[in-house]
C-alpha cells in the first residue's frame, strides 16, 4: 500500500478540483482539468503546517527545496498511476495518457510543479490554470481566440504570474466590450521560453471567459503577436527585459530603451527633483565605499538602503543613526546590495502612517499608483493600491512581510508619525487633488512608457499639510491583481482593475493616430 496518495487525499483533491472549476461533483475530468486535479493532489501531499512554513519562508532561498519536495510527490503519484493503485478508481480520467505525458514530457511535469508552487507561495487571485497535454490545432484556435489582435504578456518567472495576467485580460475584455461590443484583443500569457528566435509564440496561456478558467496549450502554428508587454521577469529582470525587447518586432508596452530611466532609482530621483517634485534626500553608494554610507547615516535620524536597480521591496532595510549596531548592520546589508551593483541610501520620509482601525497598531505606508498614457502625451493616474509594513519600523513591501490593502482603506485611517504623537491625520479633497496632480507630473518624465507604476510616500509639514514624496518608478509594475480603478473621491471603494485606457492606447498606436 502506497503512503501517497491515500484514499482521503485523492477524494480531497477531487472535491477541490470540482469546486475550483465550478463543475458538478462526480463529473469526470477531461484532459485539461486533470492538471488541476494533479495540482491539488500534490498539495494534499504537503502537510498543513508544512505549507504554512513554506509561505513564511517564501522570500528566502527555498524555492529549490520546495520544488524538490513537490517533484518527489509527483513521482509517487505517477507510480500509483502506473501500478493502478488508488488513483485509477477515478473513472473518466485518461490515465494512460496521463502516465504517458508524465513519462515523456519533462516540461509538463515542470509546469505542474510551477502551478503547485504558485498555490503554496501566493494568494489565489486568479482562476484555475488548466494545462493541456496536446497542441491546439489551427482550426480550433479561431474559436478560442476570437479577437482580431494578439497581445502577449511576456514573463520569465511563473510563480505569481497568473495573478498579474488575469486583471489585464479582464481589463482588455471590458474595454473592448464597452467600445466595440465584442472582444477585439486576445491577451495571451507567454513565457520567454515559448518564443521563437524571431518573436513568434509557440505556446500560450489564455483566459477562457465562458468557463471562467485559464488554459495553457501549445499551438500548431506559431502566432505572430501584434503587441507585447513585460511582467514577472524574475532575477536580473532588467537584463532580460533588454534581451527580449531587442528580439520583438511589434509594438511594445515599455520597450527596454525607454524603460532605462525608470530602472535607475538615483537618476529618476534627480530628474524628479529638477521637476520641482519632493523626493527623499539620497546618495548613491558605489561598491566598497563604506565611508560615504556612514557619512549619510550620520546625516539623518533614519535612512533606507536598497540596491539601485532592485524593485518591489527587494533588499530594502531601515537603519536608525542612534542604534548602537547601526554601522555594523549597514555594512553587512550593503555587502548584499553590492552584489547587484550600486546601492542607494535615502532619508526616511514616510511621516504619515496607516493606523489599523481595529488594533490601533501603526504600519509604514507606501502608495503604488499605476498610470497610463493619455491623449496629450502625458499620463493619467488610473489605478493603485497601498502597501503596509509589518509595523511602523518595517518597510512597506510584501517582500518584507507586509501586506496590500485598497487605497480607500489606507487613506481613511492615516496617522502622523511618532514625532507628532501618532495623531490621526485626515486627508481632504485638496490633498488628494495635489497628490494626483503631482503623481501625473512625476509620470510625465517617462515619455514612451504606456504603463508605469510609481511608489509614493506621504509626509506632512508642521502645519499639517500633506506632502507627497516620490520614491521610485517601475516599468514592469507588479501587484496588479490588487489594483483598483481609482475614482475622483479616493475614499470611495473602487472596482478591481489596472487600466482600461491602455487598450485604447494600443489600438491607436497600431493605427498610427493620436492616443486615446
UniProtKB/TrEMBL annotation:
<protein>
    <recommendedName>
        <fullName>ATP-grasp domain-containing protein</fullName>
    </recommendedName>
</protein>
Amino acid at each position: 500500500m502506497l503512503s501517497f496518495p491515500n484514499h482521503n487525499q485523492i477524494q480531497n483533491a477531487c472535491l477541490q478540483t470540482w469546486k475550483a472549476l465550478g463543475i458538478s461533483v462526480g463529473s469526470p475530468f477531461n484532459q485539461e482539468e486533470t492538471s488541476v486535479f494533479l495540482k491539488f493532489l500534490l498539495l494534499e501531499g504537503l502537510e498543513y503546517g508544512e505549507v504554512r512554513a513554506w509561505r513564511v519562508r517564501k522570500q528566502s532561498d527555498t524555492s529549490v527545496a520546495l520544488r524538490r519536495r513537490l517533484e518527489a510527490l509527483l513521482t509517487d503519484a505517477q507510480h500509483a498511476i502506473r501500478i493502478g493503485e488508488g488513483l485509477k478508481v477515478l473513472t473518466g480520467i485518461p490515465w494512460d495518457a496521463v502516465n504517458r505525458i508524465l513519462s515523456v514530457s519533462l516540461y509538463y511535469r515542470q509546469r505542474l510543479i510551477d502551478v503547485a508552487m504558485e498555490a503554496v507561495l501566493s494568494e489565489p487571485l486568479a482562476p484555475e490554470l488548466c494545462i493541456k497535454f496536446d497542441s491546439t490545432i489551427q482550426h480550433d484556435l479561431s474559436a478560442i481566440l476570437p479577437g482580431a489582435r494578439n497581445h502577449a504578456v511576456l514573463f520569465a518567472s511563473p510563480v505569481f504570474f497568473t495573478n498579474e495576467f488575469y486583471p489585464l485580460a479582464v481589463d482588455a475584455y471590458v474595454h473592448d466590450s464597452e467600445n466595440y461590443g465584442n472582444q477585439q484583443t486576445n491577451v495571451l500569457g507567454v513565457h520567454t521560453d515559448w518564443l521563437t528566435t524571431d518573436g513568434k509564440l509557440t505556446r500560450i496561456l489564455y483566459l477562457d471567459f465562458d468557463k471562467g478558467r485559464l488554459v495553457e496549450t501549445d499551438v500548431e502554428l506559431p502566432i505572430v503577436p501584434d503587441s507585447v508587454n513585460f511582467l514577472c521577469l524574475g532575477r536580473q529582470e532588467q537584463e532580460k527585459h533588454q534581451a527580449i525587447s531587442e528580439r520583438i518586432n511589434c509594438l511594445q508596452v515599455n520597450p527596454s530603451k525607454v524603460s532605462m530611466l525608470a530602472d535607475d532609482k538615483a537618476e529618476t530621483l534627480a530628474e524628479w527633483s529638477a521637476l520641482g517634485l519632493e523626493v527623499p534626500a539620497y546618495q548613491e553608494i558605489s561598491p566598497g565605499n563604506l565611508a560615504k554610507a556612514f557619512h549619510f547615516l550620520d546625516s539623518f535620524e533614519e535612512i533606507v538602503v536598497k540596491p539601485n536597480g532592485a524593485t518591489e521591496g527587494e533588499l530594502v532595510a531601515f537603519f536608525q543613526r542612534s542604534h548602537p549596531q547601526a554601522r555594523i548592520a549597514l555594512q553587512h546589508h550593503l555587502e548584499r546590495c553590492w552584489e547587484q551593483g550600486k546601492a542607494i541610501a535615502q532619508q526616511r520620509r514616510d511621516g504619515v502612517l496607516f493606523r489599523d482601525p481595529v488594533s490601533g497598531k501603526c504600519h509604514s505606508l507606501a502608495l503604488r499608483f499605476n498610470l497610463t498614457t493619455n491623449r496629450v502625451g502625458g499620463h493619467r493616474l488610473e489605478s493603485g493600491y497601498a502597501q503596509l509594513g509589518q509595523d511602523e519600523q518595517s518597510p512597506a513591501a510584501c517582500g518584507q512581510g507586509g501586506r496590500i490593502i485598497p487605497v480607500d482603506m489606507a487613506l481613511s485611517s492615516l496617522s502622523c508619525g511618532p514625532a507628532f504623537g501618532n495623531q490621526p491625520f485626515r486627508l481632504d479633497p485638496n490633498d488628494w487633488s495635489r497628490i494626483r496632480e503631482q503623481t501625473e507630473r512625476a509620470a510625465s518624465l517617462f515619455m514612451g512608457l504606456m504603463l508605469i507604476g510609481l511608489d509614493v510616500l506621504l509626509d506632512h509639514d508642521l502645519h499639517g499639510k500633506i506632502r507627497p514624496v516620490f520614491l521610485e518608478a517601475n516599468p514592469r509594475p507588479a501587484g496588479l491583481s490588487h489594483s483598483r480603478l481609482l475614482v475622483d473621491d479616493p475614499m470611495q471603494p473602487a472596482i478591481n482593475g489596472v487600466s482600461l485606457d491602455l487598450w485604447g492606447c494600443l489600438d491607436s498606436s497600431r493605427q498610427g493616430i493620436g492616443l486615446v
